[in-house]
């Protein structure tokens, strides 16, 4: 980056997928211009995710159309170079046709076994917790040039072709950001996710400078008997008592009694749970969740992590002070049941759909979820 600020000439950009950066942090790579090889990997990842990558993307966008050559540095044993024009032509094509991102899968302390078999993953791994497959800030793309392909951050597409990719109305609201994310959360044979809450729009804007927040939903792809989702608060919860218990639990003095404060709804295949920002929530064990959410660079305030440590053997961080300022205490059982649990309505009925075309009998109901 610095060379481009002080010199003009042939511009060669060495690019690297975000997942590969994450893996190298875990292997000891330091942050940009930092001497922190031995620092906790999670801290390095967050420093990259929230600061370095965002700054780099903003700067990259100012000279993207001047790059003469891109060098793919993801495989240290096979460096690849492609002309900048060829890459930009490829991104234009991609923005006008169906495509998918390169997925990645990662284990977690609560991870399950569903993805391992269904997605044909390494059976020797202990578990897989997450799969990210629609998150340009983290996933990558392949561009195939016939004699080989290169891998680039998917954000290159968002930065270079935002209007064509997003459409005018979305671009006018969000700019060169991809405002929706898709990921899998696998707890089948695993454990509960951490109890958490996402920030309100006003809070995330005032505190972190983001223009929108992380509203999300859980669509249950599969579930075992006894699966559940924790969602919203019970009637009569006293905020000071709940926060006091959370603080005591995270000091190790007590175990937080989640079911005293938080609703626990049974979850079965094809159920749908809406989770607007400010709603206390988490998936319980034995559920396979498709999470669809807004993407304000992933701000999650953990409240309780069930007294466990991460895969690195260290306590996982919690954010009770942030959480306290965002929990919506009036989202209690009746409101949640009415508005967030399988809140569907019929958008259209079509009595003329033929069975041979749909496999359905007599009627097709097209539904949307609020």
Overall description:
The protein has 370 residues and is α+β, with helices and mostly antiparallel strands. Helix content is 30%, strand content 24%. Strands 4-5-8-15-10-13 form a six-stranded antiparallel beta sheet, with no helix packed on it. Strands 1-2-3 form a three-stranded mixed beta sheet. A three-stranded antiparallel beta sheet has the order 12-11-14. Helix 2 runs antiparallel to helix 3. The longest helix is centred in the first third of the chain and has 23 residues, at 41-63. The protein starts with a helix and ends with a strand. 31% of the residues are buried. Mean pLDDT is 91; it is low at 355-370.
Q: What key phrases describe this protein's structure?
A:
globular, alpha+beta, about 375 residues, about 30% helix, 3-stranded mixed sheet
């Amino acid at each position: 980056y610095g060379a481009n600020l002080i010199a003009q000439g042939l511009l060669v950009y060495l690019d690297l997928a975000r997942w590969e950066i994450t893996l190298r942090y875990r292997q000891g790579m330091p942050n940009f211009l930092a001497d922190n090889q031995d620092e906790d990997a999670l801290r390095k990842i967050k420093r990259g995710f929230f600061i370095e990558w965002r700054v780099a993307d903003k700067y990259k966008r100012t000279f993207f159309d001047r790059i003469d050559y891109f060098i793919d540095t993801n495989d240290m044993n096979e460096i690849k170079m492609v002309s900048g024009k060829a890459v930009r032509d490829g991104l234009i094509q991609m923005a006008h046709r169906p495509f998918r991102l390169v997925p990645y899968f990662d284990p977690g302390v609560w991870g399950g076994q569903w993805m391992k078999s269904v997605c044909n993953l390494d059976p020797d791994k202990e578990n897989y917790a997450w799969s990210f497959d629609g998150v340009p800030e983290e996933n990558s793309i392949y561009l195939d040039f016939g004699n080989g392909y290169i891998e680039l951050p998917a954000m290159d597409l968002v930065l270079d072709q935002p209007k064509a990719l997003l459409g005018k109305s979305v671009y006018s609201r969000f700019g060169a950001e991809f405002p929706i994310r898709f990921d899998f959360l696998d707890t089948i044979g695993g454990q509960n996710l951490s109890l958490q809450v996402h920030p309100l729009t006003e809070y995330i804007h005032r505190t972190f400078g983001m223009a929108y927040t992380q509203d999300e939903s859980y669509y249950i792809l599969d579930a075992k008997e006894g699966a559940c989702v924790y969602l919203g608060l019970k009637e009569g919860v006293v905020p000071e008592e709940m926060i006091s218990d959370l603080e005591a639990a995270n000091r190790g003095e007590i175990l937080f009694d989640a079911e005293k404060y938080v609703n626990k709804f049974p979850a079965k295949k094809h159920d749908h749970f809406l989770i607007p920002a400010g709603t206390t929530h988490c998936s319980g064990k034995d559920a396979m969740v498709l999470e669809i959410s807004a993407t304000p660079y992933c701000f999650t305030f953990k409240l309780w992590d069930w007294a466990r440590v991460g895969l690195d053997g260290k306590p996982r961080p919690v954010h009770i002070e942030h959480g306290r300022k965002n929990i919506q205490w009036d989202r209690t059982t009746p409101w949640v049941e009415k508005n967030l649990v399988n809140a569907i309505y019929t958008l259209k009925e079509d009595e003329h759909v033929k069975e041979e075309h749909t496999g359905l009998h007599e009627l097709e109901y097209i539904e949307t979820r609020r």
